[in-house]
Amino acid sequence: MTIHARCLYAASLSLLCAPLHAQEIIAGDARGGDGSLPSVMVRGGRPTSLPKQIPTTIEGISAADIEATINASDSEDALKYLPSLLVRKRYIGDFNHAVLSTRASGTGNSARSLVYADGILLSNLLGNGAAFTPRWGMVAPEEIERVDVLYGPFSAAYPGNAAGAVVDYLTRMPDRFEAHARLGYATQQFDLYRTGERDGARQASVSVGDRQGPLAWWLSASHLDSDGQPLVLATRMLSEGAAPTPGTPVASGAVAGRNNREQDWLILGTTTRYRSAQDQAKLKLAYDLSRDVRASYVLGIWRNDTKAGVETYLRDAAGNPVYAGNVVINGRQYNLDAPTLAFAPAANDLEHTMHGLSVKSNTRGTFDWEVAASLYEYGRDIARAPTATLPAAFGGGAGRNTDMHGTGWNTISLRGVWRPTGSDSRTGDHGIDFGIQQDSFRLRTLVSNTADWLAGDAGSRFSAFNGNTRLQSLYAQDTWRFAPDWKATLGGRYEQWQAWGGEIGNAARILPFGADRSERSFSPKAAVSRAIGTDWTLKASLGRAVRMPTVGELYQGTVNGNDIINTDPGLKPERSWTAELSAEKVTDAGMFRATLFLERTRDALYSQPLTATVSTVQNVGAIRTNGLELAWQRADVLVKGLQVAANLTYADSIITENDAFPASVGKRQPRVPQWRASAVATYRPDARWTHSLGMRYSGTQYGQLDNSDTNGFSYLGFSRFFVADVRTRYQVDRRWSVAFGIDNVNDERYWAFHPYPQRTFSAELRYDLR
Q1: pTM score of the predicted model
Q2: Distance between CA 528 and CA 53 in Å, rounded?
Q3: Would you call 531 helix, strand, or coil by DSSP?
Q4: CA angle, residues 599, 605, 608, in degrees to nearest 5
Q5: 55 in Cβ contact with 528 (< 8 Å)
Q6: Is 153:475 a contact under the CB 8 Å cutoff?
Q7: Which residue ranges does UniProt annotate as crossing the membrane (predicted)?
Q8: Domain ranges of the chain
Q9: Distance between alpha carbon 447 and the CA centroid of its chain, in Å?
Q10: Where does residue 148 rank: exposed (0-12), middle (13-18), buried (19+ CB within 10 A)?
Q11: Mean pLDDT, to the nearest integer, of 497-506?
């Protein structure tokens, strides 16, 4: 651990702390200053940092609602019931596959959404896919003030990765002394094939903060021990079986099944059962340089020590477990060591650091400005795996270390807003936002051989993969209320993208990819709204997004002699036009919104067959998505104290052109279900008790471009599901509270390549001093 990490952890854990006190839910004013409706209703807490002046769709949830309705063990749980969103969270503390899905983007498209916390980029734009999940662990659920989501690429303030959505976490800063503590526990009984086990997660967090004159500070720490269910199945296709050779051991215990393509296979056991120990610490400072200017600094540290275990179903004639070698199952011989090891444990040792610094004015006068910078660093990031076979590898032996030290990203921006003389800053009558931004990404990956995969030092190089990208942007957008019932935004974003330093290597050599790449693009944005009567607002939005290739997509391939092969050096940016038309009714009792959305994407970036045996990222000619989203909220439904929020999304997302893979034309876009819905009902019979029931549904979806994976209820498959969750919270007194919950009450067995959790019970104890 670095010196500053040790200091921050020691200071955090030495505090006497208490939990977050439940906040009041304060409905935003349903009317603008001139009697017309605003574009966004902010529901309590500090205001969102998203551009709420733009007349388009923004949904959000406050800390009070999270605490009342969600069994939140990780920060991404706050998004659980928001319209059209799904986070592919596989277990508590999922650090490497919890990808966000939006209206027209599946969980394989992590680079088509953006996640921020207090203005710091958490999205991992080094690649696109399950392995490039946002850094959710840098935000603890207890520190969230509110979360807001901007749907679609309708703000010029964000790059083309905002094609799906922008998620903004606003975390707590105190205005007086406060301290918090929380203890949490969760457990599930997981049963699958021949696996039956009890998995648990234990959490603890502490935080303290204060404001003393011009200085506000916040110090927090959290710890998680988590046992996840097995995520990967060890399998062999039935068709791989060969005639037995003399002396081959006979194994029993294999389970016959069918894979995601309805092909017969044998399930031999499980791998990748994570046991995780995660720590997070954060220091936040804010200093008022003057009445109107504030400087802020954030330091976050996240550590993760993970072991991935295995379980074999196979037994030899003496009843001993079988992990490796050739075995005979039902009269056919199978190799457990090739083409890959059927059973391979793994380990991860990670420490990441985040810095954020900003200076911002808030005069609410003619002109305001902000200077901001952030840095995210992979201080230590080592993945370990054996090459030796089990059971010998349980004690060490030959293996490989994957070291990503030196990887990370940084951002810097200058922003301003000018309000022409005579405009009203409170109602947003007229404001011009503009800025200049730079986002830089650096990927460094070195795979080395080692004599001891558990603890050995790196030896000779096995492979290497490096590259850099940079996005420089200028933007401006003008929002004005040009008539009492009308509001409009017109803007644009100019971007210049560069990629350089790409190289890939094997044990013998490291080869550069050749010439650097650069692209330029312009993305116009427009939105307009009209208030009708006292309750209704109509909105229309149109925006272009250009999503540049990530380092991982651009610099790909393999080394053959002195050449890089199996790559697409001419990979194009992904270009999308998105439009939406909304009708929204807002009253003191609730709201209703209906939104039609359309997206046309050219040159979508997907992995697809390059040859008969090799797949690589290539451009998909065109994808068309048409959809409808309905959202409804209401207070005091049927009885006083019952609040209901529900949403339904229909998305018809079809591949219309793809010369590289004609079999995919006319098929559904992977991982985008046609139907999805969620609802949550919250009942507060008195000031002490809160009960909630949540429901989530997702329809049929596919993982392959040609939709050939028709069996969703299988390892590698993507299934439909319906899941119900419950939560009960009791405010014991002004400071103490307890909560109990069950996720997946109906014990649904469902899949997203890996198995999702089964019925999970949770409990938490909180204490607050404020």
Answers
A1: 0.92
A2: 11
A3: strand
A4: 120
A5: yes
A6: no
A7: none
A8: 3-769
A9: 26
A10: buried
A11: 96
